[in-house]
Each structure stands twice: as structure tokens, then as C-alpha cells.
Specification:
Layout lengths: L7 E5 L5 H10 L3 E5 L3 H4 L8 E2 L3 H5 L4 E4 L4 H8 L14 E4 L4 H15 L2 E4 L2 E2 L2 H6 L2 E5 L6 H11 E6 L5 H29 L4 H8 L7 H12 L8 H14 L7 H15 L10 H6 L5
Parallel strand pairs: 1-2, 1-4, 2-3, 4-5, 5-6, 8-9
Antiparallel strand pairs: 7-8
């Protein structure tokens, strides 16, 4: 790659997080091509100077940096392993920056795939909601070879405000699972607390007022609490993906059976999906706690 020019980037996956990330990459002056399984969802990005490709291999051909932002490990493997072999058409010294949340086991498989194809692999999942992705204020949990850091910087600076380099590839995904486990269980606890307040015929706003001051207030309470009470869920992060992330925490544990809170957390998100709330924001887990089926 010529370090005197901005790198070219391909983004595979333009869903809730991938689309605003691609838009911010283009806004930072990078040459950006994207591919999405449902092409209609990617088309609006053309207004931002992004090239929408009809196939994954067309998007990645000759690019310096490949960013994957797909739903999970199997989805990435399905796209990158096949007759078209997108990894084979990258630039000779390209870097694959894997930014989806896929968990440690899938990350190991993807890193092995990259090594087998001779592609430098950087594991860099992101922390933040859709709104933060739109504003370019994500936190990047990066891990990979030291000599890849400078080349990844234009991408990370475009999508986030903070990058943590954590060591060899895989460390980013391990930390992401840990952080997500805390976020998922905290959100379920908030949902059940609001449902309990409603059971006791209390105005749940009074609960938020009490904890919203001082040390007891937390950002995700302020973000999700009002949405839960109003049963109005602007989409920041789909509940179905919260179910996946909660399951990844258990999958990653040495003894999942002893993590009682995380098991209950996963079960509550699963119940939310069973009640028809999977496509709604993760704050809709309050409907699981309250036993409310999607209308």
C-alpha cells in the first residue's frame, strides 16, 4: 500500500452499524466500496460517495483494507469462503479488519482463514450504539500485529473516538464479550426493575429519578429506561443481536453453568424473541419481563 495516499476500503455488511461506519469512512476522504446481502439497504450510501458493489468479490477487489461488519462468524465465513473467494482478490498487502462481534471461537477460525490465505488479520470489534456509529464516536477494541496499527488508523479514526490496542488478534473479541456480558445483564436487570415497579403500581419514572442522580445513575439506564417505560424503542441495537451476544458470553466461559446471571440474561432475551420482539431495539426486553407479546 502507498502510505502517501488514503487507503481504499471495502465494507462487507451495511446493517445498523455497518452503514453509518461506511458513511463516515467516505466522509473522512477514504475510497469506500460496500456490499450487502440485501443490496437495497446499501443503495442510499451512494449519495455519500460510496460505491455499492453487486458482489462481495467486486467490492474487495484490489482494496487495501477489508472491513467485515456482518451478523456473526458463520455469516462471514459463508461470504468469504466459496467459489468466488473474495480474499484472493485483495491487494497483495491488504489487511482484513474484522469489526463484527463474533466471539472468541469464531475469531480464531477467521484468523486461521486469514493466515491460510496469507492475509494480515486485525480483530477490532466496536463498542457503541447506532447513534454513536452515526456520530463516529465508537470505541474500537483492536488487536493484531503491531505493524498493522498505522495502516488501520485512518479507518479507526473515521468510525471512532478511541482505539484500544490490546495485543495479539483475539484479545479485542475477548474483551468485547466481557463488556457485552455486563451490558446485557445490566439491561435485563433494568427491564425487570421497571416491570417490578409497574407490578407494584409505582410510576417507574420515580425509580429513574432516584438512580439518575449521583453514583447510581449509569448511561445505559438513561438511554434505555425512558424507552422501556414508554414502550417506544428507537432502534439502536436489535434485540436478536443482544440474544446472540449474551449467548457468546456463555459460549466463552470455562463453566457456563456457574454464570447464573448470564444464563438468566440470555434466557430473557430469548424470551423476548419468542414473544416477537427480535427485530426491535434491545430495550424491548422489558416486554419479556412484563410478558407482553408483540402486536
Amino acid at each position: 500500500m502507498d502510505t502517501d495516499k488514503s487507503p481504499s476500503v471495502a465494507v462487507l455488511g451495511t446493517g445498523t452499524m455497518g452503514a453509518p461506519m461506511a458513511r463516515n469512512l467516505a466522509g473522512a476522504g477514504l475510497s469506500v466500496a460496500v456490499w450487502n446481502r440485501t443490496s437495497e439497504k446499501a443503495e442510499p450510501l451512494t449519495a455519500d460517495g460510496v460505491r455499492v458493489a453487486a458482489a462481495a468479490e467486486e467490492a474487495v477487489a484490489g482494496v487495501d483494507l477489508l472491513v467485515t461488519m456482518l451478523a456473526d462468524g458463520p455469516a462471514i465465513e459463508t461470504v468469504l469462503v466459496g467459489v468466488d473467494d473474495p480474499l484472493a482478490v485483495l491487494a497483495d498487502d491488504a489487511i482484513w479488519v474484522q469489526m463484527s462481534t463474533v466471539g472468541p471461537a469464531a475469531t480464531s477460525r477467521l484468523a486461521a482463514l486469514a493466515a491460510d490465505r496469507g492475509v494480515t488479520f486485525v480483530d477490532a470489534p466496536v463498542l457503541g450504539s447506532y447513534d454513536l456509529a452515526v456520530e463516529g464516536e465508537l470505541i474500537v477494541l483492536a488487536s493484531g500485529p503491531d505493524d498493522a496499527r498505522d495502516r488501520c488508523t485512518p479507518v479507526f479514526n473515521a468510525v471512532g473516538t478511541r482505539t484500544l490496542w490490546l495485543g495479539p488478534a483475539g484479545a479485542g473479541s475477548r474483551l468485547k464479550v466481557v463488556v457485552n456480558a455486563w451490558l446485557m445483564s445490566t439491561t435485563v436487570a433494568l427491564a425487570e426493575t421497571i416491570a417490578l415497579a409497574e407490578d407494584l403500581e409505582l410510576d417507574p419514572e420515580s425509580f429513574l429519578e432516584v438512580i439518575g442522580r449521583g453514583a447510581m445513575g449509569v448511561e445505559y439506564t438513561e438511554l434505555n429506561g425512558p424507552a422501556m417505560i414508554a414502550r417506544d424503542f428507537p432502534l439502536n441495537f436489535p434485540l436478536a443481536l443482544a440474544t446472540k451476544d449474551a449467548a457468546l458470553a456463555l459460549e466463552s466461559a470455562a463453566d457456563p453453568a456457574r454464570l447464573k446471571v448470564f444464563n438468566a440474561t440470555r434466557d430473557q432475551y430469548t424470551r423476548g424473541e419468542e414473544l416477537g420482539h427480535g427485530a426491535r431495539d434491545w430495550a424491548a426486553v422489558v416486554c419479556a419481563a412484563a410478558g407482553e407479546r408483540a402486536s
